[in-house]
Design a protein that fits this description.
The chain has helices spanning about 10-20, 40-50, 60-65, 75-85; strands spanning about 1-5, 25-30, 95, 100. The chain has about 110 residues and is of the alpha+beta class. A four-stranded mixed beta sheet has the order 2-1-3-4.
């Protein structure tokens, strides 16, 4: 199981400790220190069965600065912004068996 996270993020910390209690092997990656490539992010988004806009953190300051609420962008433009500003990406991202789960997730439902 892979987890892409931000160490200071409380939701990430909670999710990681829940998964660690399940005794699952976890490969962790801080995607702020080791950012996603555009290709990698596209693959992850595809695994979620969601649109890139559904994976945006609306509370992030860049979301407000870029006025993404009113400023309609294409999926490709959103992905480029997510790569440039990783804070825009909902987290954590958990990958298990070719499926990606994003944001607050009940770890017990993943395996």
């Amino acid at each position: 199981m892979k987890i892409f996270h931000k160490p200071a993020c409380i939701t990430c910390k909670k999710t990681i400790s829940e998964i660690e209690r399940m005794n699952v092997d976890i490969e962790k990656r801080d995607f702020f220190k080791d950012p996603f490539s555009e290709t990698e992010l596209k693959k992850i988004i595809k695994m979620t069965d969601k649109k890139p806009s559904e994976l945006l953190r609306k509370r992030d300051k860049m979301y407000k600065e870029l006025d993404l609420e009113n400023n309609k962008k294409t999926d490709a433009q959103i992905i480029k912004l997510m790569v440039k500003y990783p804070g825009l990406i909902l987290r954590p991202i958990i990958i298990s068996k070719n499926k990606a789960y994003v944001g607050k997730v009940d770890a017990a439902k993943i395996k």
